[in-house]
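Hi P.,

Sorry for the delay on this. The queue was packed all week, but I finally got your sequence through. Input first:
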Amino acid sequence: MRKLRGAGVLAAVATGLAVLTPVAGAQVGTGPWISDSPGYSEQERGCGDVSGLTFKLTCSTASGDQRAERRYTTYSGGTHQFEGSFKITSMSGTRISLKQTFRDGSSAGPYFLLAVEKGGRMYAVEGGATLGSGATVGTSVRVNTINQVGSSHKVYINGSLKQTISSPGGSYYDKFGSYRTGSGAGPITVQWSGIKFWHK
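Then the structure:
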């Protein structure tokens, strides 16, 4: 019998036959989850550069729109989870946003931005709350966000819940890469991996 890999399996035996049902395996949050494959566009502005899953800000400019990102498809309603790991490979700048949950539609604009300071502190740009430490050059950090539209938005760092905030109803989308915050500047090079999406 061929083995099924990469998914949870529910087996039921009826009339001598095994029935196998795949279940999507999100690492955080209560399931069941359904895997997603949303479309995306790439954004390069200012000194931003995108090459696959490597995102660079090549300048130290502390003004203007400096970004290198992937912007995913807008969703409305439901519960949506993002997962990805980033590793900063070089950073002489500071206060760079790496993962964002943006509002779209009539309420378009920043909602949640995870940023990193030189030295490895991770924080929420909106409100300034510290979400973790250790995001230093060469260290891999896993990020999960779960947005239950109309209820809550949760942020997990390396599998641990770090923040829960209210999520207003409406439309949202996910972005990741490298983006200069209002008080930040590059240069930075960050590599992302293990990008996954689910909904329920």
